[in-house]
């Protein structure tokens, strides 16, 4: 925690302003206009707020905004050459190939693997007995562990690649890479997040390179194996280096984002028992291990997930840097300018949403469709050519976890509870989201 005198230095002060309450920071900025400037993290940034300004950068009609040099500043050394950090023709080429790993038949295959893996993860929640029955169960760390285990399973092809100690080391390495994004000291110095992340990246590269020949040799249905065997009609494939870079990025892209979404949904379902019951009834009507098509019939849960992504978008702002001079809504933006596309704010603007701070999943129902108020009113997955490639996978994973949790547990959270969200990297509840969790007991009608 920085002491107050440091917080008063303007360039760090604005960074901390953002981290302590991003929405308040974005609101203050937006009051000055949709295209403004601020010094943050030692650099001058153009800040885009409101759906029109966000749309301009994400549609990127004149190809002025680049991802690599923007995100590269925040997470570059650790997620180097992941799809999100590639640009223009090269990005297009890699995306064409990578999207074959996220077709519907592939996702159906991942769902088949996810279903038993989630069941096993939730068995462990029950086995933790003391925390499950009545005591405070910390939902966020439990979900983080669950989604990391799922990533090991679905992305890497199972725990047999590594023993428990190595898996723990890999998880730590991966977490170090993610946490470096919010580091204020961005130098490879002893004891810094930056140094831990460099070490983490090396460990992940070594692990993946070691297992790559075996993945190339046989065709499995885990993501690592799939990436090794992708081929376009023109015969394009990924090099070993590409596979490693994409794998490390995909692990990052998939993990925290899905965990945050499930956490937010659990919180609101705990605070709104009527929605919890409505979702549970739909889940109880399906098998414990549903197919992708069955999962898509969970309409109430779908509304809850959309509303959770609106209230707490896991990626609150998107980073870009201009590669040439351009303008947004008539305001000039010079070449070389770091740009923050503040999608979070659009989700909370009263001109786009009724009573935006209220948890109201029905706002996404066919009768209301408030998300149609603007093409970029709801953009948790971004927009334009970099729109999230894992959107369908994420939807399936998040719904599957919540489906099984709803069938097996019930929980309550105080209606007045406000999650103390930490925004040093992606948002998460600093208190771990304590909930009162009980095994679900079906009630017999009186
Ligand atoms: C709820 C969960 C998720 C959210 C909210 C989310 C959000 C986003 C956002 C906002 C972007 C765009 C970044 C930008 O324009 O700068 C993005 C890109 C991306 N996401 Fe996701 N994501 C989620 C889950 C996933 C999952 C599960 C995967 C993979 C399994 C994934 C893979 C990707 C990839 C590959 C990109 C880069 C796309 C490109 O640059 O062409 N995401 N995600």
UniProtKB/TrEMBL annotation:
InterPro entries: Cyt_P450, Cyt_P450_CS, Cyt_P450_E_grp-IV, Cyt_P450_sf
Cofactor(s) demanded: heme
Gene Ontology molecular function: heme binding; iron ion binding; monooxygenase activity; oxidoreductase activity, acting on paired donors, with incorporation or reduction of molecular oxygen
Keyword Metal-binding: yes
GO biological process, one term: sterol metabolic process
Transmembrane segments: none
Amino-acid positions noted as binding heme in the UniProt annotation, renumbered to this chain: 388
Gene3D superfamilies: Cytochrome P450 (1.10.630.10)
Annotated keywords: Heme, Iron, Metal-binding, Monooxygenase, Oxidoreductase
Keyword Heme in annotation: yes
Superkingdom per UniProt: Bacteria
Family recorded in the similarity comment: Belongs to the cytochrome P450 family.
Protein name: Cytochrome P450
Record organism: Nocardioides psychrotolerans
């Amino acid at each position: 925690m920085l002491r107050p005198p440091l917080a008063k230095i303007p360039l760090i002060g604005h960074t901390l302003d953002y981290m302590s309450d991003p929405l308040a920071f974005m609101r203050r900025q937006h009051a000055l206009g949709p295209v403004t400037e601020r010094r943050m993290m030692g650099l001058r940034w153009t800040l885009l707020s409101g759906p029109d300004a966000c749309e301009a950068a994400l549609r990127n009609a004149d190809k002025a905004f680049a991802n690599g040099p923007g995100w590269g500043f925040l997470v570059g050394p650790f997620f180097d050459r992941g799809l999100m950090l590639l640009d223009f023709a090269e990005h297009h080429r890699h995306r064409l190939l990578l999207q074959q790993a996220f077709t519907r038949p592939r996702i159906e295959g991942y769902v088949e693997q996810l279903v038993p893996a989630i069941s096993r993860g939730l068995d462990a929640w029950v086995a933790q007995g003391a925390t499950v029955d009545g005591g405070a169960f910390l939902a966020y760390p439990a979900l983080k562990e669950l989604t990391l285990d799922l990533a090991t399973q679905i992305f890497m092809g199972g725990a047999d690649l590594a023993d428990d100690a190595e898996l723990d080391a890999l998880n730590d390495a991966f977490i170090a890479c993610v946490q470096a994004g919010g580091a204020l000291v961005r130098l490879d110095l002893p004891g810094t997040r930056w140094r831990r992340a460099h070490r983490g990246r090396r460990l992940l590269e070594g692990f993946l390179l070691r297992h790559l020949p075996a993945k190339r040799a046989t065709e499995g249905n885990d993501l690592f194996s799939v990436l090794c065997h992708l081929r376009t009609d023109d015969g394009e494939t990924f090099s070993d280096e590409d596979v490693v870079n994409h794998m490390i990025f995909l692990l990052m892209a998939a993990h925290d984002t899905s965990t945050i979404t499930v956490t937010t949904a659990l919180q609101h379902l705990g605070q709104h028992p009527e929605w919890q019951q409505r979702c549970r009834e739909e889940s109880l009507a399906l098998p414990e291990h549903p197919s992708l098509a069955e999962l898509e019939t969970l309409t109430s849960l779908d509304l809850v997930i959309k509303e959770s992504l609106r209230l707490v978008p896991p990626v609150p702002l998107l980073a870009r840097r201009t590669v040439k001079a351009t303008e947004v809504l008539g305001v000039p933006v010079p070449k070389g300018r770091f740009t923050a596309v503040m999608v979070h704010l659009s989700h909370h603007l009263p001109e786009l949403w009724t009573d935006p701070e209220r948890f109201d999943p029905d706002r996404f129902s066919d009768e209301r469709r408030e998300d149609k108020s603007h093409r970029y009113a709801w953009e948790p997955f971004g927009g334009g050519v970099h729109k999230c490639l894992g959107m369908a996978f994420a939807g399936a994973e998040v719904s599957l976890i919540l489906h099984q949790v709803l069938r097996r547990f019930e929980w309550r959270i105080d209606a007045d509870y406000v999650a103390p969200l930490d925004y040093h990297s992606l948002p998460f509840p600093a208190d771990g989201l304590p909930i009162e969790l009980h095994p679900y007991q079906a009630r017999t009608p009186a």
